[in-house]
Hints:
Helix 3 (119-130) crosses helix 8, helix 7 (194-220) packs antiparallel against helix 8 (224-235) and helix 8 (224-235) runs parallel beside helix 10 (260-270). The longest helix has 27 residues, at 194-220. The chain has 413 residues and is α+β, with helices and mostly antiparallel strands. The chain has helices at 2-20, 80-85, 119-130, 136-150, 157-168, 172-188, 194-220, 224-235, 241-255, 260-270, 294-298, 313-329, 347-356, 372-375, 401-412, and strands spanning 23-31, 39-44, 55-58, 63-70, 75-79, 91-93, 99-104, 114-116, 283-285, 291-293, 302-308, 334-342, 361-366, 384-388, 394-397. Helix content is 47%, strand content 20%. The protein is built from 15 helices and 15 strands. The two termini are 47 Å apart.
Amino acid sequence: MKHIAIPVLLILTGLTTWAQSSRTIVVEGRVVDRPYSHTVLISPFGQDMRATPPQEVSIHDGRFQLTLEAQPQAYELTFADEWQQGVWQPVVFFPDADTIRMTLFPMDSASMNRIDGGADNADLAHMDSVYTCRTPVFMAWDSLQQSRYTNHTLFNAEAAALLDRINHEEDRATLDSLLKIWDAKQKARTHMTPEATATDRLMCAYRDSVNEARYEHIRRHPSLAGYYRLYSEQFFKQPGDAAREEIYRTVYAVRYPEHPYTKQLDQMFYHRIETGKPFVDFEAPDLNNHMHRLSEKIAGKIALIDLWASWCGSCRRNSIAVIPIYNEFKDKGFTVVGVARESDNTNAMRQAIEKDGYPWLNLVELNDRAGIWQLYGVSNAGGGQFLVDRDGTVLAINPTAAELRKILSEKLN
């Protein structure tokens, strides 16, 4: 009993300490040249507003004000009209002063935005102004690449032919395969003409030098602004994992052991879902509010963990594509467990299941309460599919329908 009680006490103590670090602040905003904007949305960075509703604040006569009970982490302000249009540029700020004052402009003039109040806000503004690729030389290269794209001289013949096939392919399974080939070409940088490749190398080298300088600043001057930068780049899976991991391990995990970014980065760096590694177990309720443990539902079977959402069109198309495969292999040792990421209620989830006809067990992740999307490394996505072997090893991540059928045929026939 002592071996259990001591860790739990430490965890509860850490959570209490973190909760006590919250503070009440006032955010005052002035909105310039945006008569079409009537509402701003406030949420902690990393919180998906599709799954967990943000705080809404009205704009009156070009101004807004809110009182925020905040923890020391990055928050995002998003204009509701941009969010509804599907293209938005969040304004990041830290609640490290009693009053935070903002002056905000339209998206195409966002570089003029100003945030006053707090050392972390000043540090973030400094990093954004000094460690940036938006310099004359870099923007000239970018303009050149844009011109090549417009003139159809950016991609080489093989890549252009592949893109043409992608744009005209109607079969979903074939399209998925083509998109994977295109993604591999982009990652290998083998999709451009020699001239465009030469410019791309210059841009990559420049970008790397900016990143190195920014990382050095983050290492030498640790702050919540630096931690946010570290976390956000890993959150969006930008290149540079090794450098970020080293700085996280030696500086920030030590300095901020109880911060939520520490928990998330520990998951991303050391417990992330990868092929050949174990799946992550969890509990979630079904639509009748009965709890289920994933490991019990997939024990002894090859299983597809299908993370989806009623509002994610691509997720639902991928799930629908699995139905005939499920029916083909369900009596041979294959099962599917779905988990829907929903907000506030399950009405849309129920309608989606009825419309799409999923024949397997579906659980619900309401308002990200169990953190399942974070556990599986898809925090900023609608979902993902993870194929797990009988021994709990991940066989494939986001396999196409053809790849899934092939693996099951080899394993179960």
